[in-house]
Design goal:
alpha/beta; Rossmann fold; 8 strands; 10 helices
């Protein structure tokens, strides 16, 4: 599946299904992919949000691969933008940090996810958290209006990652920054995994090489790019067996190929005196 439009529609459909799944099912799969649940491990990628201020269990679908809010340096009064906001998990944690004087905007292209997020915001009585429908390659956000951009295990699902980083740069204010958790690769994944739609919707075969990911960030104009957290993602055998033979699994495990979750922080440099 090479057509970008078809690929995005497949992801949209998958995440509409995921919006109705239970947290426990998402935690035992690759970011909620409906066809690759594991009985070997409980939590493949997602980190534990439950101790964070602002955490709302109704918004936690277990679809992340890090906690970007923990590294985001959000201040009271900030405007925060969450890309691929899902049911609102990171947005509600960010809302606690910005307080009543700040604002949080979530953007997602799944109507099912948006409905879930808006329902959660209404239940919490929050009037400074807004969820907008749109593509993160063409953000429905004005230029230079955002202090902090967040995203959690979303950019790997987007074919045109270059456009996403350029959009992040556009919407950030001078001196603004982003904190993004995502999936990257070191070495080449087996072709069977790359071509499997369920694994793509589950964050693996949509990922690109780590060096390439960081290169896109630098080419978009960001400064002080830094990986603040990195962990290897171990895909259990009972998931791999759905796509690879036993011999292929052994070859994969003995190779130098790796799947990693990284949390990246970067800044948009100041373009006028005193902006920082």
């Amino acid at each position: 599946m090479n057509n970008e439009t078809e690929l995005k529609e497949m992801v949209r459909q998958k995440y509409s299904e995921i919006a109705g799944q239970e947290l426990s099912q998402n935690l035992t799969s690759c970011c909620g992919a409906t066809a690759c649940c594991s009985t070997d491990v409980y939590n493949i990628m997602a980190d534990d949000y439950t101790q964070l201020e602002g955490y709302n269990p109704d918004a936690d679908l277990g679809l992340g691969c890090g906690i970007p809010t923990a590294f985001a340096k959000i201040k009271e009064g900030n405007t925060v933008l969450d890309l691929g906001s899902g049911a609102g998990n990171d947005a509600f944690v960010a809302r606690k940090a910005v307080g009543v004087s700040g604002k949080v905007i979530g953007v997602d292209f799944s109507e099912a996810m948006l409905q879930k997020a808006r329902t959660n915001a209404e239940k919490l009585g929050l009037n400074n958290v807004e969820f907008r429908q749109g593509n993160i390659e063409q953000l429905p956000v004005s230029e230079a209006t955002v202090d902090v951009v967040l995203s959690n295990c979303v950019l790997n699902l987007v074919p045109n990652k270059k456009a996403v980083f350029e959009e992040i740069y556009r919407v950030l204010k001078s001196g603004g920054h982003f904190s993004i958790s995502d999936i990257v690769l070191i070495g080449e994944l087996p072709q069977k995994i790359k071509q499997t739609a369920e694994m793509y919707a589950g964050c693996v075969s949509g990922a690109i090489q780590k060096w390439e990911y960081l290169d896109l960030i630098n080419k978009a104009g960001f400064k002080n790019v830094e990986i603040l957290k990195e962990k290897e993602i171990i895909v259990p055998d009972d998931i791999l067996q759905q796509y690879l033979s036993i011999a292929e699994i052994e070859t994969f495990k003995n190779s130098t190929t790796g799947i990693f979750s990284i949390t990246v922080f970067a800044e948009k440099g100041c373009c006028k005196p005193g902006c920082c």
